[in-house]
Automatic annotation (TrEMBL):
It comes from the Bacteria. Pfam families: Beta-barrel_RND, BSH_RND, HH_MFP_RND, RND-MFP_C. Residues 73-206 form the Multidrug resistance protein MdtA-like barrel-sandwich hybrid domain. PROSITE patterns: PROKAR_LIPOPROTEIN. The keyword Transferase does not apply. Residues 1-34 form the signal peptide. GO terms for cellular component: cell envelope; plasma membrane. Keywords: Coiled coil, Signal. It comes from Massilia polaris. This is Efflux RND transporter periplasmic adaptor subunit. The lineage of its organism: Bacteria, Pseudomonadati, Pseudomonadota, Betaproteobacteria, Burkholderiales. InterPro entries: MdtA-like_b-barrel (IPR058626), MdtA-like_BSH (IPR058625), MdtA-like_C (IPR058627), MdtA-like_HH (IPR058624), RND_pump_MFP (IPR006143). Residues 115-182 form the Multidrug resistance protein MdtA-like alpha-helical hairpin domain. Residues 217-297 form the Multidrug resistance protein MdtA-like beta-barrel domain.
């Protein structure tokens, strides 16, 4: 026997109302969860360091790659052949002009000098005798005791003997020079290389014994472009001072200051470059011939102009263009492409893209997104990395 359950007609509205209430509660709960998740997902403004774009009067510079060269370089050769008996220098040491470097066995040249001296004395004696005979012949000619022809012959003989004396004396002088050449001296002051030929070896004038390069002053040579030539070439040819600085591979910036000494008289049409050379004082021997050098070429003293300057740390690279993040009045990052110029005193010239007084991000570019809010701590545009970290540390400590 089946039992039939029936729902009262009056109960149906109540069930429907309960279902609708449950659905509404579920929807409200979902909205609350979404709001909570949205609040949790909202990122905090990233802490970054910013600085104000500055404007200064500058003398624009250009940078090139160059090499250091000695002002003087000499290959030391023997001027006479012989056996080397002594080497008087330490390889790589500093030597002065006239300092003894090598000695060659002088005995063969001393013997030759003795022979030449004897030949000169003999020629002198014969010339003196011929002069006495000419004086006697002149008196006899006055008394008409000899013929004019005999007198002329004696006069001619004396002239020949005088020439022989001069030739013998020249041979003696050459022999004495060869003795002096057995002492090989440095013709310049500078740093000497190693001895290419050592004691006991036979040398001739074709052999290179060593080399000496001067060290102070020193040249830095580089190739400038056409724009550089037009900018400083005229001043250099007139003798006007054009500032040049160099930095070595292990140095920061350009700590060595010099002056432009030479600008070539023409441009190479194949490369569009012109040879240039600057002179530097090298009292501390830091600059060594042959080293790579970063060359910064300035301009004449009257070439100052206003320039917008920023730190290189503020510049980002987006494929083939440069950009910075400008901080708006609402503390949001604005992506701004820039056109850059050369570096001057550690700051980069900006041709276009930013204006003096604008605030830009200088540290923390990787934490910034265009249009996103930022938490900027201000520093000086030319502040170094340590100063920026100190400011950031103080700011972080104040938030604790």
């Amino acid at each position: 026997m089946k039992t039939t359950h029936r729902i009262s007609v009056h109960a149906k509205p109540l069930v429907a109302a309960m279902a609708i209430a449950g659905l509404a509660a579920a929807m409200l709960s979902g909205c609350d969860n979404a709001t909570a998740n949205s609040a949790a997902a909202a990122p905090a403004a990233p802490p970054i360091t910013a600085a104000t774009v500055i404007e200064r009067q500058v003398i624009e510079t250009q940078e090139f790659s160059g090499r250091l060269e000695a002002v003087e370089r000499v290959d030391i050769r023997a001027r006479v052949g012989g056996f080397i008996t002594q080497v008087h220098f330490k390889p790589g040491s500093m030597v002065k002009k006239g300092e003894l470097l090598f000695e060659i066995d002088p005995r063969p040249f001393q013997a030759e000098a003795s022979r030449a001296e004897a030949a000169a004395n003999s020629a002198t004696a014969r010339a003196e005798l011929a002069k006495l005979e000419l004086d006697r012949a002149q008196r006899l000619l006055a008394d008409k005791a000899i013929a004019q022809r005999e007198f002329d012959e004696k006069a001619s003989a004396l002239k020949e003997l005088d020439a022989n004396v001069r030739a013998a004396q020249a041979s003696l002088q050459a022999a004495r020079l060869n003795i002096a050449y057995t002492k090989v001296q440095s013709p310049i002051s500078g740093r000497v290389s190693k001895a290419e030929i050592t004691t006991g070896n036979l040398v001739d004038p074709t052999a290179i014994l060593t080399s000496v390069v001067s060290n102070n002053p020193i040249y830095a040579t580089f190739d400038g472009d056409e724009a550089t030539y037009l900018r400083v070439g005229r001043d250099a040819h007139k003798g006007a001072a054009v500032a040049v600085k160099v930095g070595l591979a292990n140095e920061t910036g350009f700590p060595h200051e010099g002056k432009l000494e030479f600008v070539d008289n023409r441009l190479d049409t194949a490369t569009g470059s012109v040879r240039m050379r600057a002179t530097f004082n090298n009292d501390d021997n830091t600059l060594v011939p042959g080293l790579f050098a970063r060359v910064q070429l300035g301009g004449s003293a009257g070439g100052r102009s206003n320039a917008v300057l920023i730190s290189d740390r503020a510049v980002g690279t987006d494929q083939n263009r440069k950009f910075v993040y400008v901080i708006s009045a609402a503390n949001k990052a604005e992506y701004r492409p820039v056109v850059l110029g050369p570096t001057i005193d550690g700051l980069r010239i900006v041709r276009s893209g930013v204006k003096p007084g604008e605030k830009i991000v200088v540290n923390g570019l990787q934490r910034v997104q265009p249009g996103a809010p930022v938490n900027a701590q201000m520093v000086a545009m030319d502040a170094d990395r340590k100063a920026e970290l100190k400011v950031a540390a103080v700011a972080a400590k104040g938030k604790e």
